[in-house]
Structure formats: C-alpha cells, structure tokens
C-alpha cells in the first residue's frame, strides 16, 4: 500500500475531518486539497474522484460534486465527516490497513 493509494487518502481525509469536528474547528481547504498535507501530492483529477466517492457513499457532507463528461469536479463548502464516515473509519478492513500503513510509515520516518 502506498501513500497515494485511494484507501490511504480516504483514511487521511476522513480522519482529518473527524479530528476537526472533535476540536470544533473548521477544516482548512488548503490542507485537504491536492498537494496539501492531508491528501498529499496527488493529481487534481484523482482527488476529485476520491472526494466524489466519499460524498456519494455519504461519508462526508459539504462536498458538491459536478459531473461533466463522466468526470467529477468537486467543490468544498464546509466539509465534515458524517456518522457513516466515522463508522467507516473504524469498521472497514481497508481503512484498518491504511491506518496500519500510516503508522508504520510514521514510525519509519518520524519527521514526516
């Protein structure tokens, strides 16, 4: 599993939104955007697809998806994680694998 795998990026986005919710802070769009510290250096089109998946599954709110030519364009209003998103973070086996990957990466590279 790599840092740019869909499940890893999804985990990081959902975890960031959940952390912001718990702290009572509004998420910073610049942190969520491609190249930001949450999503990492991924192409805009890949980020749009990931965010569209999260919105379509009801895991996030405040995310508008505009489809044109079978490609999504995502607009963030006031993104937040839903209860379904929190449960997905905790119960989904791929999310557990993504968390394990991130923990291992962080222990190998503590400055990251």
UniProtKB/TrEMBL annotation:
User: Matching InterPro entries, A to Z?
Assistant: Phage_Tuc2009_YjcQ, WH-like_DNA-bd_sf, WH_DNA-bd_sf
Which SUPFAM superfamilies does the UniProt record give? Answer: Winged helix' DNA-binding domain
Its protein name is: YjcQ protein
What organism does this protein naturally occur in? Parvibacter caecicola
Give the organism's phylogenetic lineage: Bacteria, Bacillati, Actinomycetota, Coriobacteriia, Coriobacteriales
